[in-house]
């Protein structure tokens, strides 16, 4: 048989047929002819031959009938597909809705307390009651109990969700065997294996769900309890964060039953991991929905998921190679003894091609590249593909939309009590209230502000030239280049500090702490230089407390006379920063610095020019200091929107040397009062603007009056308080018990204690390090081991509330609790000066397969072996580790080497000299990996905040106003980075923790910089 057209190729288009294609198909079918051959008998043996072809009447009739019925067939196919799509859409939406409701309700169930256990007990008792087990002690019935029947399990009640034949098939229920229900109850509350947990991938969950559905459809399982006609819902582990893990059985349930099903089938480890969820701080009039609050309660340190990348190791190696080439180049050129101060280091904006090293040095780096390539090849692909984002990831798009729609912003809070959600206009109004206080600020025109900044730039340039021309040693440290690091290239594009306020949510009514961040301002290097120079003076001043460890180290050594009465006296310097008389402060600090500098000077007129501590050099340094302190702290300009203001009084929080100036200003009056020599003062110390004293006196009034009349700062008001029993100071409560001095940790009211949650994508070693750091901090804050043990119990409970597995927390605790206590007051002193070589990268799981020590060993051992063989004239061309002799025709860039850094080798019996890496200390260096954090919630909160403020500018422009100048916010760029980093499954919600950086004095104790008493009450 032959065909004029291919029927098969036409039917290939059937599944994707549209109305137009239907018509074309039918038209093609009308042109279809099917011929049959005609045979002629040739002889008596039955041999036939084809004579010609004729049209088959039967096939023609069948084709005509098919042509007639095809439109109806196409219509039915479309209806079936549309019905399937509709059913799937409804199913997906109901699962998502159920998951969202269950997740919100689960957050309440997982709050601190017995709620989780109550949820378990309630579900278990309900199941046991339905099973009709009878009371304990009675003889159980021998008959098998009836299965659990739920009216909502009848699919006939929900025709929209199922096919008619399935409704018919589900109308007959089979008898279920007893053992399955017992196993269901046991599995429902069993903990997951340690290697599973909520990090399990979506694909595995899908496979599990599909497997269980197949078993139910085939009627397999213990006692045939998984028959498709069963009305008993078998146990399936579900996770609300992954709606597709919820079985289809919930589609036939009521909303309440579906949510209960999700709760009872969620693994306990998943419930525990979600305990972090709570409310967040809100400014007046702000209402945050529960689901948004749950996401935000992760804290600003929550770090988002980033796809693991093997190329990260090679990128870090390439960057390291570039830096170590330059390091080798400059060490050979300038020697190891050249002065260098990393605090004055300025990164070069131009990336020049690194120098070429001698061939044997290049081969050492090639050995390192081989190790890196082997490491990358050894990382199993399946291990990387299994790494997925954790559950409870914040819904980034939903949070962003909520903030923008309501004009809300996320900010930090004073005293680090947790993040706060505030209304945009409320923030702006309170910030402008601060700036419009004429006692502290005055508004400037833009042209005037530009002139001030231009004057600052010229002064910084002059200061840099002074360093270059008059002080050789400061110039060698890179100070002149550092002074020019923030000078704009065009001389006019100045960066202004952006004024903002931090809400004081612990104050009623809420106050604001003014912040003027000057890190990128043209004159900030001068303030940094002043701060660095004042650090030795501050360290040597006994009345200044340098932190909690310093305070309690002193108190642990304090001996109080038990025969005398003693009291606690505390003082708070009201609005310390802005109330400091600036001119007087600069005069006092310069006088203290001059005295300290001259006392450290060495008189040696013959060698003054080569002695960095000579009187001649120190006098030049004193002049540089006085000019730097003037440039960095006077005429401070700040920007708020399109308006510019100048601070009129005191110091500003945000300038690098403000804490140092404030400390020494107070120390001047404390030294003058001789408070430390007073016979009735057992102890006195001050941390920035908080004072603490232990005073011998006959009464509280006498103790208070003694300190009040002794400690006075010009221009400042100090509010004093006295107690005979105890007081709160810094992060501790210091108290008297049985006549002895004790202290214990203190948690400020309203502190949300936002530790890094377990579900954050920080590496495990970082989470462990943070926990151990907490142990060390608590050991210092506890005066006795009994108090310490109680504080550790509280810490462990806090970490469990943040979702950490109990066995893991207890393991960390047992391994470190004793050591942290014994070393609580130990000083960290480096055992020896060692060189460190750093591979710079970011957090990623691929570094679990990498060893920086092995990389360093591979490279340095090759270099050591080459020198040992070269000194004996022994070379080899082994491809795996070639020890080649120097090639005279090989061109490299080490053509300027100090003579003492050469070594002698043998080449073909002749002596040659080559640069010796052993003499610049690199072969004994320690190799480490330094990782920076990935995107966290704090980063996105800043982007969202700028987006909300930019929306205000656009609204002003639409109404005919002037758009204020704001910093450009490339939100698309940030979003693209986040989305590229996530690469998460489509069933999951959209989303993206620092290792927490060391805290500065300002960040650790932000209790200064208040503009007036009215904002403190």
UniProtKB/TrEMBL annotation:
The lineage of its organism: Eukaryota, Fungi, Dikarya, Basidiomycota, Agaricomycotina. Residues 203-218 have a biased composition (Basic and acidic residues). This is Reverse transcriptase domain-containing protein. It comes from Psilocybe cubensis. Residues 194-227 are annotated as: Disordered. Residues 483-748 form the Reverse transcriptase domain.
